[in-house]
Structures are given as structure tokens and as C-alpha cells.
Design a protein that fits this description.
It is built from six helices and no strands. By secondary structure, the chain is an all-alpha fold. The termini are far apart.
Length: 135
């Protein structure tokens, strides 16, 4: 009986560790992503650069105004793709958005841009995207 209980406890610890290490919703986020802040000052130049990169890389899915209505948008996930929706602001601070843009995910599809954009460019997109949320 004690051996069986010990086995169950070890199995639960193993499963718990696996679940804790698994990426959330397909995102590969480092543990400290939510605490990361944009290292660049938010100013007109950064926002203009972010808007330019957003227009060239993100509008096909997120739409010109970030509402999740681009021509390649997945209608099933439109609510989550709508970057203007304030209900997702708390779970998408700067560092989380940076890593989502950088690493992407396979399902639902979000391309990884780490090989197409520099870290500075991605941070500019983060700064711009954070301005899209409705107050």
C-alpha cells in the first residue's frame, strides 16, 4: 500500500512538473516574460517605426487597425487576434508580446519573426501594438 501511494505521488509530481514546463497555449515563453519591459523609450520615432513594421509584417492577419480582421485572419480566433481588445491586456504585457512576436506558435498559427526582424524592430512593434488597445 505504501509503495503504491509513493508511486502515485511520484507520478503526480512528474506530471505536475511536465505541465508546469509546457508552453501555455502553444506559446514558448520564458518564465520571466511577463516581467520584461520594453528597453526602448516610447516616443514618436519608436511608434512610427513600430507602425511601419506592423504594417509590413502583421496586418495580413491582425488587420490594419489590429482588430484581427486581416485577409489571412483565422475567423475562429478573431477575438484573440484583436489587439485592440482590452480584456487581454493584463495577460499581454510588453515581454509577453515580444516573445509571442519573436517565437510565434503553430496552432493557432502565428509566424515567428525572430529571423526576419531584429530585437529592436520587434520591441518597436511591441510599443506600437500596446497603443492599439481601447482604453
Amino acid at each position: 500500500m505504501v509503495r503504491s501511494l509513493a508511486f502515485v505521488l511520484v507520478a503526480l509530481l512528474y506530471v505536475g512538473a511536465f505541465v508546469a514546463a509546457a508552453p501555455q497555449n502553444g506559446w514558448k515563453l520564458p518564465p520571466n516574460a511577463a516581467q520584461e519591459k520594453n528597453p526602448f523609450p516610447i516616443n514618436d520615432g519608436l511608434l512610427a517605426a513600430g507602425k511601419k513594421f506592423f504594417a509590413s509584417k502583421c496586418t495580413r492577419c491582425h488587420g490594419a487597425e489590429g482588430k484581427g480582421d486581416g485577409p489571412d485572419a483565422d475567423a475562429e480566433y478573431k477575438d484573440r487576434m484583436d489587439l485592440t481588445n482590452p480584456k487581454y491586456a493584463a495577460e499581454n504585457p510588453d515581454g509577453v508580446v515580444f516573445h509571442k512576436v519573436s517565437s510565434g506558435r503553430s496552432e493557432p498559427r502565428m509566424p515567428a519573426f525572430e529571423d526576419q526582424m531584429s530585437k529592436e524592430q520587434i520591441w518597436a512593434v511591441v510599443g506600437y501594438v500596446q497603443t492599439l488597445r481601447k482604453k
